[in-house]
Amino acid sequence: MNKIAKEHLIDFSIAINPSYQDTWFHEALAEVLERAILKVEQGEDVRIIIECPPQHGKEISHETPILTTRGWITHGEIKVGDYVYGRDGSPVRVKNIWEEVMSEYDVEFSDGTIIQCHGNHEWVVFDRKQRKERTLETKYMASQQVWNGVYGSRGGRGRFQVDSNVPISGKKIDLPIPPYTLGAWLGDGTSTSNCITHHPLDFQTAERIEKDGFKQTAKSVHKDTGCIRAGFKTLYARLKNEKLFNNKRIPDVYFRSSIKQRLELLAGLIDTDGYVYQKNGRIVFSGCDKKLIDDVRRLIISLGMRVSKCSFKPILSSSGIQGKKIVYQLGFNPNMEIPTVIPRKKINKTNFKERKRSIVSIRRSKNPRLGRCITVDGGVYLVGDTFIPTHNSQIATQNFPAWVLGKHPDWPVMVGSYSGELAVGFGQQTRDIMLSQQYQDIFTTRLKADTKAKGKWATDEGGSYTAAGAGGVFTGLGFKIGIVDDPFKNREEAESQTIRDSRWNWYKSTFYTRQRGNTAIIVINTRWHTDDLVGRLINKQEEDLKNGVENYDKWEVIKFEAIATKDEKNRKRGEALWPERFPIEKLRKTENTLGPYEFSALYQQEPITSENQEFKQNWVKKRTITEVDALDTRKFATIDPGGKELENDYTGIVRNYVDREGKWNIRAMRVHIDSKELIDHIFTLYGEGFEKIGIEETVYLKALKPFFDDECIKRGRYPNIVPLKHNTTQKEVRIRGLIPRYSVGAIFHIEGYCADLETEMFVFPKGSHDDTIDALAMQNEIAEAPDSVLREREIDKTREEAIDPSDFGLDA
After folding, report:
1. What is the second-level CATH architecture of the domain 60-164+355-391?
2. For the whole model, what pTM was predicted?
3. How many Cα atoms occupy the beta-carbon half-sphere of 283 within 13 Å?
4. Which of 412, 497, 537, 756 has the smallest set of CB atoms within 10 Å of its CB?
5. What is the pLDDT of residue 608?
6. Pairwise CA distance, residues 623 & 641, whole Å
7. Which listed CATH number (2.60.40.1080, 3.30.420.40, 3.40.50.150, 3.40.50.1580) goes with 617-798?
């Protein structure tokens, strides 16, 4: 396997990540890159442009809580640049956020956590059946037996396990209230004042609070229990500023504080409302405020400890006070020292080993919600208030540079992107791959001990990796392999003439000039604009070729559309690029969410701008359905059927209400429809008074006519069908025949009935659909077509010709 991985990039990708899911287009891209290295080895220059849709498909529900360095938020509130927490509890940066889809699965864990996610969402799990760690999709695990036996029964066990809790690292913060004091007040403080109640023997709590700088003031003793109620000077203002009166909670900032500070907070809580079992070391914390109990539970989990939760009817407290509310109780075994000060609550056992958490069930959600995928440095981040580790999507630029340096440890590699931080992130991913045991089992290349920074490091053999943002400065030995990955952050940047010029100048003067000998330059670009970096490179090539320039860069363009716009070697027109993970239905939802411009650029690699739009938005005039109903009109319908199997493609249907001035008033839609439903729809149009119904002749004659004729006889109704032969076989030419009518304002769209049509118009001819606009173009043909003969006569004649009397034993 290692020998094959040395020679083939796709096998290398699988070797360093056994869960890597390769497809035909991954293999095709790997072969292109392999050929590029071979050509460089042979002394040639290589120029490759890669255009492909963004990685998608690992969505977590928007409502899922997630801890960031700016506090607890929901997954739907995450922004690029936020820091969430990685698998080891350290902060990791959010690099990308992908599109919304429906989170339709509920994944339940043995600690009671339920995470809602999409079927394509990936989890890093230990598979007990195969006895190894794997990265698996939710829908795959759902197809397996995740729990052996009935959950909760003796002897049951889960097949898939995630990490045990890990402590969130955090950092020392200047907190508004010292953590021990806050914990003590949350545990036994009066909710409307700066007073804290404690047992007379538990004076250590008050002394500890005084060490935090709060001097005791007035004291009072409960006449029945003898408990002491003490106030603490200046604490009142602190509690009021944090809006904690009648609202006991742990402010978000404490969850982001250092482990030491969080342990002090937990110590204050335990010293007031906790109990330590000296025999086995287990700790319980009790309280009647459910919201506070949930916060304490999060605090314990953030320290890497597993916690259970239960509730009881009102009980008598350790201070002798009879409760009146339901009591909630948390139980946990500490795995680190907690600085409690009351002697009977001293933590004397901290060697508990945290167990992995099992997935106990995966089921279809009864209430699916929208969610989305994020990409983070390192690949794994923690979600939910119990910090479940989950995977993010793999970045394509990780594997190739590592593989190149394995084969050629003396080659310099440079990578640029729209931001230096993103480029450095790519460098970190590549560096981590090269430091992994899997990599070192394949290649002998090793990193130089004193140069292991994320974005700039070297190999022992003299090779190097340098990362910089587009516009930044490259230093070092130049490059044999130069990669530019997404030089534009978004449409806003790409539509700025200033930024486009800046990126172009950076490419020419900074990046391009760093070549060392013969090189491979690889540009990975999302096509936001026709004049972006890729657009300029292609235009430069065409100009050089036209002007007879002999030595110019010849670019090989590798383009992967999310939805095929024509038949290809590995798929048909209209099929998804990766249907197993990104099915056509999901891509359609994405197209609807993003709109035609973003989808065409991001997913189809065809940027649509005002300059190259054939149908202009200001040509579209609107009328309401009420205004059209008031006109004296003739009605004509046209249908563009969805092919041989109608239900597998859209059928475009256009209703045209032609007024006395000859202007068209259009209703248009596209639908998935089978033959029977289409016949029913034709009768609906007939019932609405459409005098001509045009339909593409080939599909009509081959797929519909025999059944339609029989249905006409059964219903006794004969719609006037006009089979359209098309006056040209080129669809784009037919559609462009609409431009004169639109440009002079002779076509009106009926408000609320032309969304599909407008989506197709404004991206023509680059869009993945043209069903409704093609049906509209047929209106030019139906206007010229003669009326059909009476349908009943035509059908009778057809039937007479088809019947041979001898078949029935009759004389001819």
Report:
1. Beta Complex (2.170)
2. 0.48
3. 31
4. 497
5. 67
6. 27
7. 3.30.420.40
